[in-house]
Amino acid sequence: MSSPPAGPTIVVLGDSLSAEYGLKRGSGWVALLEKKLASEKMPANVVNASISGDTTSGGRARLRALLAKHQPKLVVIELGANDALQGLPLALTQDNLNAMVQSVQATGAKVLLVGIQVPPNYGRDYGERFARMYTQVAKANKVALVPFMLKGVADVPDSLKWFQADRIHPVEAAHPIILANIWPEFKKTLR
Questions:
Q1: What is the Cα–Cα distance from 15 to 41, expressed in whole angstroms?
Q2: What is the pLDDT of residues 31-42, one digit of tens each?
Q3: How many CB atoms neighbour CB 67 within 10 A?
Q4: How are the residues of the chain apportioned to helix, strand and coil, as percentages rounded to the nearest 5?
Q5: For residues 15 and 77, what is the distance between their CA atoms, to the nearest angstrom?
Q6: Which residues, other chains included, contact 131 with Cβ-Cβ below 8 Å and sequence gap of 6+?
Q7: Mean pLDDT of the chain
Q8: Could you tell me if 94 and 127 are in contact, meaning their C-beta atoms sit under 8 angstroms apart?
Q9: Nearby residues of 150 by Cβ (< 8 Å), 6 or more positions away
């Protein structure tokens, strides 16, 4: 029986943006996070529990078992994009995010909430309310927040070069930028 790596366990609970959709294994931001932790001499066991297509309801349903199995010190929650794509009510998404954060906190673990923004074709009002939802959840529960994981990828003039043909999933070259967006808050939260 081999022992897990020394250091805390970190669970990443996300969707296709964290599950390496359309990428070769080991090239997404979560894999890059593992390499960064090793290079910074911060031993940790990173569990990528992300599933392409997952919603906040799916994450909420899976979370209890993940917490029991892995007993993480930190849970990174990156969910919500598929809720928007499916047109689910914002109140439901926000309720699920709050419930997940509180479930993690009840175990004594820390949370890093990773936000996403919806494309402009959803309408300005919906887009603003969707982005604000992450801030509200983070403030209400006093947890760390990365407001927009795709900053510098989706919000730049030449953004198409950063996406696969579906215009939804970032290409491999975008994942170091995604990690750079997440790393500062991640490192602060882990300490």
A1: 28
A2: 999 999 999 999
A3: 19
A4: 50, 15, 40
A5: 9
A6: 115, 117, 118, 147, 148
A7: 95
A8: no
A9: 17, 116, 117, 170, 174, 178, 181
* pTM (2 d.p.): 0.95
The radius of gyration of the chain from alpha carbons, rounded to an integer in Å, stands at 16
In 25-178, which ranges are E strands? 45-48, 74-78, 110-114, 144-146
Q: Which residues are catalytic?
A: 16, 166, 169
* 14 backbone dihedrals φ, ψ, rounded to 5°: -145, -170
Tokens of 161: 């070069």
- The two tokens of residue 158 are 């030449």
Any idea which residue has 């950063």 for tokens? 162
Number of helices followed by number of strands (H, E) in the chain: 6, 5
Identify the pLDDT of residue 1. Answer: 47
Q: What would the pLDDT profile of 3-14 be if each residue is shown by its tens digit? A: 455 789 999 999
> Residue for token digits 């010190």?
73
